[in-house]
Amino acid sequence: ASCVQHRLVVRDASSLHIRQLYTCLDQIQYLEWSSDSLFILCAMYKRGIVQVWSLEQPDWHCKIDEGSAGLVASCWSPDGRHILNTTEFHLRITVWSLCTKSVSYIKYPKACQQGVAFTKDGRYVAVAERRDCKDFISIFVCSNWQLLRHFETETQDLFGIEWAPNGCVLAAWDTCLEYKVLLYSLDGRLLSSYRAYEWPLGVKSIAWSPSSQFLAIGSFDEKVRILNHVTWKKITELDHPATISSKKTIVYKEVEKSPTVDTERLSFPPTRALASSLFSTQSKYDISQVPVSLQYIKPVADRANPKVGVGMLAFSADNCFLATKNDNIPNAVWIWDIRKLKLSVVLEQLCTIQYFQWDPCQPRLAVCTGTSRVYLWSPAGCVVVQVPGEGDFQIMSLSWHSSGDSMLLLSKDHFCVCYLETEEV
């Protein structure tokens, strides 16, 4: 699904043929599929309205108007039949049921980076709250939205919460001014508290492994610390130095080359598409000999949100690899072998890393850098894929299909779908 102003366009994922076309009341600012792909939510924050469309019954539609309370966020519950709307100034979260048309309210939600977290099985939801200048977490049962647990957290300014994939442990972390990661059980007991250091800027990013065995914590000190699920103690620290000296680490360096084309031999003037492919610079990977010095940018210390520390990290679907990005070295992706707890590969790009995401079915990483190329890494090696087409298609983000056989590439105003051949083909 994609939106153009107030139009919602639903396409077939394999052929991109238009399946449905819907017209909303205003410009769409956010859209989201339900978990069973039967409904689409379209949020228009400026007007405080949410419209819901049905794929099975195109004539059916639903409109939710928050009125004077306003609207700043909207999302589906995991069952795909309830919508959670957050009102302006985070006064409350309103839970709307599409089945019974009933309404429930969750008071005092906190305005933080990640204040609402569902368990993977969809049975429970945790909500970060702020009351009387103190942080709390409430856990609700999603089947009837009844309160299961409510407890105060040992944080100065709670910044985010995230469930482990098995739904047994909830991680909560403090603001970057206070290095603290807290781990709570489903019944609200504090299982462990972790603090690596005290005074410098603290936690910047967090990621659970798919098996729930590891919790990776990216920090402003350019390190990743991995906690184990048995004792919740640190098992290793992963450094991100500007010089790679280990001979066991493979460094893939992106290089550009301009193709040499003898235009006088062309018996006809090339078309625009052919000319763009003939004369555009091409990219490939070379293996660098260690030691390798990476481009290191010294952050500006007197500005807010300094470009320093590990801001992106993600585990592969098979738990074998961890990909990280150190904002001080913006052109590099670090890939760690979790089985050996060693650095396996570094991808050194020509441009700043914008986003990366693992294939949901196998250890294959897709990377984009704001250019018209997408980069793929797997244990077998690296490949550069040029997006064909006229003009400059700058890929700012990407998203894998759940089957792993295609991915969506997003620029500022356009999108395209990249299909990957399977071994059978």
TrEMBL record:
SMART domains: WD40 (SM00320). Coiled coil: none annotated. GO terms for cellular component: microtubule organizing center; MWP complex. It holds the Pfam family WD40. InterPro entries: Centrosome-WD_assoc, WD40/YVTN_repeat-like_dom_sf, WD40_rpt. This is WRP73 protein.
